[in-house]
Amino acid sequence: MNVTLRQLRAFVEVARSGGFTAAAPKLHLTQSATSLQIRELESQLGLQLIDRSTRRFALTDAGSEFLISAMRIVGDVEQSVADTRELVHKRRGRITVATTPLLASTLLPESIAHFLDAYPAITVRIADLPAEQIGRRVLSGDVDFGFGVFPEEDPQFDRIPLLRHPLGVMVPSSWPLATRKRDLVWSDLEGQPLIAMSHATGMRTLIDQQLHQAGVQVNPRFEVAYLGTAVGLAEAGLGVTVVPAYVGKLMGSDRVRFRPLHKPVVHRQIELIVRAGRSLSPSAAAFRDCLAARCKMLNG
Predict the structure, then answer these.
(1) Domain of 59, in residue numbers
(2) Which of 211, 212, 233, 232 is nearest to 222 (CA)?
(3) Listed GO cellular component terms (predicted)?
């Protein structure tokens, strides 16, 4: 059986219009071409759909029953096409993004606000997760893309660099270290009450390595799982914490000051990851571009 959508559409329109003559212009066909479409459909089905024994147009019993299914099929296809066009033109859609709680509370809100100004009918969902879970959610297809710091290369992902900032130290504003005239170096953290990330984070490994190379003994006063917590403790005057510069820009206040660290300058890079070989939907691609534009402003 080789029933075509064109045949089904012709049958539905003939039934709605009450005959071939009225239906043909709506189908952009001649009357004879319309009649041929119906005959080919009847041949494929092995059923007579239209009663030709009377001069007045009428469906057979089989035709009346088949019309219900044909209308549903044609309607579903037309709705699917309309829905796809809506998505292509970003008039509606849904995006799910995975990122860390810190980025979800700092970088994302303004990016989402700008995006929804342009595309108000698109729904944006945020999965705020520990960094180590983001890749798994991207691979599972639960989210359109993830963004954060992903130090290890992985062929399962396509990566787009978004934001590259040097590491520095957040210091309570009233402390001497905050106003020291010269550039700060890693050895300046010797003897400071350090608010460190937990050992499970890549950030902790990187910071410990730099402190050891600078001859600084690592003996944290606090250990936390999230950068936002570390910044909050620093704001309360409980210690200093090493963070990327974008954290200083996004979470800074008059209670703390961000000072870049030198000798050496160490960078952290935020990247967007997508499952390798996967194309983003038009809506997700538009949000990616909005996020990239926001990061470009921060890079500047």
Answers:
(1) 5-88
(2) 233
(3) cytosol
Is residue 16 predicted with pLDDT exceeding 60? yes
Q: Please count the structural domains in the chain.
A: 3
pLDDT at position 300, please?
Answer: 63
* CA dist 156 → 108, 132, 271, 278 (Å): 25, 15, 14, 10
- The bridge status of strand 145-148 relative to strand 93-99 is parallel
In this predicted structure, the answer to whether residue 264 has a pLDDT above a threshold of 60 is: yes
Contact 41, 7 (CB under 8 A): yes
pTM exceeding 0.85: no
**Range of lowest pLDDT (84-88, 128-132, 296-300):** 84-88
With a cut of 90, say whether residue 130 has pLDDT above it.
no
Whole-angstrom distance, CA of residue 215 vs CA of residue 257: 24
At 89, the pLDDT band (50, 70, 90 cuts) reads low
Distance CA 134, CA 126 (A): 11
Same domain, 138 and 13: no
Q: Are residues 157 and 284 in the same domain?
A: yes
Burial of 169 (0-12, 13-18, 19+ CB in 10 A): buried
Q: Are residues 43 and 190 in the same domain?
A: no
